[in-house]
Amino acid sequence: MTPLLHDTAPDFDQPIAVLKHCHNRIRKQLATLDKLLAHLPEFGADEQARQAAQAVLTYFEKAAQLHHDDEEQDLIPMLRAVAQGDDAATLQALAPVILQDHKDMDALWQDLHEQLTAIAEGSAAVLSASAVQRFCQRYTAHMEREEGTMAPMAMRLFSPEQMTQLGQAMQRRRGIATDTLPPQAPAIGQAVADLRKDYGQASLNETDVMDDPMLQFTQWFEQALKAEVNEPNAMSVATVDARGRPSSRIVLVKQFDERGFTWYTNYGSRKAEELQDNPYAALLFFWSELERQVRIEGRVERTSSEESDRYFRSRPLKSRLSAIASQQSAPIGSRAELEQNYEQVAQQAGDDPARPENWGGFRLVPERLEFWQGRRSRFHDRIVYERQEDGSWTRQRLQP
Fold first, then answer.
1. Which of 62, 119, 208, 248 would be a feasible disulfide site paired with 53, CB 3.0-4.6 Å?
2. Can you count the helices (H) and strands (E) in the chain?
3. What is the pTM of this model?
4. Catalytic site residues?
């Protein structure tokens, strides 16, 4: 097999050209996969096969993810901000497909990762033709969608300043220094103080909300999904330690129902230890696109082992391996040591690792929920529900 040479990348002052360049490099890696598939039956995991497998691994483990982040965190949000009319309708239909493509491609990559790792190490010479075919077909269709619609739309709609903004974001993601402050930029403190946005999309009235706050939350969450809010399931979890000192972090809610709000973590983490000392927490969902937030307070309990097992088995393999390899919140000497722990676990755990005993779910059983809707001139709407001793809920309006 002949190693593929890297072609020269365009400068980041042409960010759409950089994205197209990334696609070209992906196509070369897909071609290498096809060649490797034909090479292995005749030559096995020889030096050329090992080098090719390692090249594909390196690209899709690192560079490809940067490309996905470029689209998810910068290109798509920037297009949403400027697209109107037919462009907005096209983007509304296309963006969820692009984001789902990324998830599907990550899942398909899991099937190939272990095989390619074994080939790169010379310990196996097996590569699934069906897995390669599914992966290549999905990536090719995905790139064609972007090149046929999103890239031309960006070229038409973005101003030179927006192109600069996109290019600088891509550089920062790759660790390339950029000078983002204009000459004589105002002091940061003053700039923050001057930030101000007036709200006015919607209102929240006592007569409009439901009697059950969980049904009200479900309605708002479904509206957040429909509005394609970025990470609608992201929530802040605030805990308090034995000394009364608070801490908070962002996690993803994985289930909510009449029992409460469930997330999963390492039981040795800081938040888990604080919940052991003080089993009460506060959650916060903030959906800026809808000018809404929901504050939730209550007692926290662990989910059952069976429920934690079911969720753990549903996770992608790499996420399961990460959960096993990481002693969350514990100090470690370097990133290299962390990666080494992961590789050791990956080699030992097999294709279906069991949930470690120190990993599982927490469920916050709500006692208080506050629904906040932004309004003009900071005269916001706030409706709060509080659980009574008999399990019923009361609700009332709070002043902004």
1. 119
2. 14, 9
3. 0.54
4. 378
